[in-house]
Design a protein that fits this description.
homodimer; HIT family, subunit A; 10-stranded antiparallel sheet; globular
Chain lengths: ~325, ~325
C-alpha cells in the first residue's frame, strides 16, 4: 500500500509507492554498461603532465613524490571571483553581481579510477582537501555558503570522466537551504534538541534502514527518502559544520563513504550519482540547531511534472528494501 | 558577465551564466529526431476501441459523435482513493495513508497528435476538462491540493506516447508549495499588493522577455528563469485559482498555451517538457495574495549537485535571449 512519509527535519513529504518498482538489480541506471575509461587521456586537462591546462592550484596533496589531489580554480566557472556581490533592485527585479568562488578537486592523477575505487588513504586525502578548502573559503567575509558536491556521470550533470568533485561558494544563502534550517531552529527552540540528532537516533534505534555504522558515522537510507536508494551519512557527534570535523572523523568518513558508494556501484551497476555535503553557512558553524551531513543520490529515476510542481517525490523503492538490498552487497571495505 | 537574479515572489535565486551557452537551435533536447508516432497503436490503452483497458471515465467530452477528451482514473496511480489519510507519528517518523486522487486526461483519440498540434478548439476542450476536474476534486473535503501537469517525452518522465496530461490531488500541502505562498502573503501584508501581479506588470513594462500577449494572458520567459526557455503564462486578472477561470479566459489560455508550445516545438526541435498549473489549495481559492499560473519547463539541461544542494539553478541561456529567439519562431497560431 502506498504511504506518505515526512522528513522529520525539513517537513518535506514523499510518497513511498513500492508496488510499482522493479527489482533493484533490474533498475535502469542510465548508460550501462559504462565503458572502462583509459588510465590516461591525452585530451584530459586533469591528467598528469597537463597541469598547465588548469589555472594554478590553490592546494596540492602529495604522496610518493607525485601529486595525489589537486584543487584548482574552475576554468569554466558559472561565478567569478572578480565580480562584485552588490545587489541592485529595479522594480520587481533584483540582481547581484555573479561573484563566487568555484574550484575543482581533482581526486587522483589516474583517469580510470573513481572515488569508491581509490584506496582508503586516498579517499581520506580528498576529504581532507574538502575540509581544508571549506575552512579557507568560508572565512572570506563575502562568502556565506560553501557547497561541496560530486557529479558522477552524464545523468548527474557531468561529461568529464576524470575523477573530480566541485566546490561552489556563494554570497547568497537561498530559500532552498534556509527554509529547512528554519524548521530545525523552531524544533530546537521548542524541544531544546537538534532535530537531526533525533532523526539519527531514531534510525539507529529502528535499525531497518541502516547500511554502515562506524564509531563516528552512520549511513542509512532515510525513512522519507525522495528517490530510490538515496543514502545519507551523518556524524554521530552533533556539530553544524563539516569544516569542524576532526582528523579521526575525516578518516572514519572516508571509510563509510567509500563503503557506501561501493555498495551502490556493485549493487546498482555503477549508477550515475550526485553527492552533496550539506553544512552550516559561514558564521553559523557553531549554532546548536544544525547538523552537517552528506547525501548521495543515485540517478535512477526522472522527476516529472508532479515532483516539480508539488515537491512531493514518488519513490518506487521502499527505503527498508533499498537498505536491505545494499546491506547484502559485498564490498572490499 | 554572470549574475544572480531573484524570483520576486519566491525569493529563489538563479545564476544567469549565458556565456557558457550554445546557440538555441544547437541545444541538445534529448531524443532527437523524435520518431513520428503512428495514428493508432494496437497496444495503446488510450487509443479508440481500447476504452475497456482503462477504468470507466469520470468525464467525457464529445465532438462530431466521437469522444474528444476522456478523463479516467489512473490505473497505475501512486496514490489510492480507497486509502485513509490518517497520520501516525512514531518517534521522529510521521506517516499518512497513501490517499489521493489520480486521473489521466486523454487529450485526443489520435495517437499521433500532441497538445500543441491539436486544433485550437480541441485544446480548449482539454483545458475545460482540467478546470472541471479541478473544481470537482478540490471540493472533496479530504483534498487540500490539486496538481495538474503534463509530462511530454522520456526526459520529462513519461514513456506513454498517446497525448495525455495528469491530475494528482493530495490531502497534503507540502513545504515546496506552501513556502512561496508565505512569501507572497508577507508581501501582501506589507505592501497591500499581490506580488505576482507586480511581477507581471514589471514584465509587461520591460517587454524584453514577453512571448505572447492576449486580452487575458501574457506568456514570458521570467526574469529569474531557472532553466533555459522556462516560460510562464499568467492571467492578467488577479485570481488565486485556476478553477475560477472564466470561459473567455479558458478560450484565450488555449490560444496562448498552444502558441507558446508551438514556439518551443519548432524553435527547440520538439523538446521533452513538463508543464504545471500552479493554483491555490482548496479553501484558498479567494485569497488575495495568490495568483495562479502555468509554467512550461523544456527538458534541456540536467540539474547537478550544485542545483540539488543549493537550489540555485545555473541557467546558461539569458531569459532575454531565450524570449527573443522564441518570439522569432513562426507558428500557425
Amino acid at each position: 500500500m502506498p504511504e506518505f512519509r515526512q522528513n522529520f527535519v525539513t517537513k518535506e513529504w514523499v510518497i513511498i509507492a513500492s508496488e510499482r518498482a522493479k527489482r533493484p538489480d533490474q533498475m535502469s541506471t542510465g548508460l550501462e554498461p559504462r565503458p572502462q575509461p583509459p588510465a590516461f587521456r591525452e585530451d584530459c586537462p586533469f591528467c598528469p603532465g597537463h597541469e598547465d591546462r588548469t589555472p594554478p592550484p590553490v592546494m596540492v596533496s602529495e604522496q610518493g613524490g607525485q601529486w595525489a589531489v589537486r584543487v584548482v580554480p574552475n576554468k569554466f566557472a558559472a561565478l567569478r571571483s572578480d565580480e562584485r556581490p552588490c545587489r541592485e533592485q529595479n522594480g520587481p527585479f533584483l540582481r547581484a553581481g555573479g561573484f563566487g568562488i568555484a574550484e575543482v578537486v581533482i581526486e587522483s592523477p589516474h583517469h580510470d579510477v573513481t572515488l569508491e575505487t581509490l584506496p582508503l588513504g586516498r579517499v581520506e586525502l580528498v576529504l581532507r582537501a574538502f575540509r581544508s578548502r571549506h575552512l579557507a573559503i568560508a572565512s572570506d567575509p563575502r562568502i556565506n555558503l560553501v557547497s561541496i558536491f560530486r557529479n558522477y556521470g552524464p545523468l548527474a550533470g557531468t561529461s568529464l570522466e576524470h575523477p573530480h568533485s566541485q566546490i561552489i561558494a556563494t554570497p547568497i544563502v537561498p530559500p532552498h537551504v534556509r527554509d529547512p534550517w528554519r524548521h530545525a531552529q523552531l524544533h530546537f527552540d521548542t524541544t531544546g534538541r537538534c532535530a537531526y540528532c533525533e532523526m539519527v537516533e531514531g534510525e539507529l534505534a529502528a535499525r531497518v534502514r541502516v547500511l554502515v555504522e562506524t564509531p563516528h558515522f552512520v549511513s542509512f537510507v532515510p525513512y522519507a527518502a525522495k528517490t530510490p536508494f538515496e543514502t545519507r551519512i551523518y556524524p554521530k557527534r552533533h556539530h553544524a559544520s563539516f569544516s569542524w570535523a576532526s582528523d579521526a572523523e575525516v578518516a572514519d568518513l572516508a571509510k563509510v563513504l567509500r563503503d557506501t558508494l561501493q555498495r551502490m556501484r556493485l549493487g546498482l551497476r555503477n549508477p550515475d550519482y550526485n553527492f552533496i555535503i550539506r553544512s552550516a553557512g559561514s558564521g553559523d558553524e557553531d549554532v546548536r540547531h544544525l547538523h552537517w551531513y552528506l547525501v548521495i543520490i543515485p540517478k535512477i529515476t526522472t522527476p516529472a511534472g508532479f515532483e516539480i510542481g508539488s515537491g512531493i517525490y514518488i519513490n518506487t523503492v521502499a527505503p527498508e528494501g533499498a537498505a536491505e538490498y545494499l546491506r547484502g552487497v559485498q564490498t572490499d571495505a
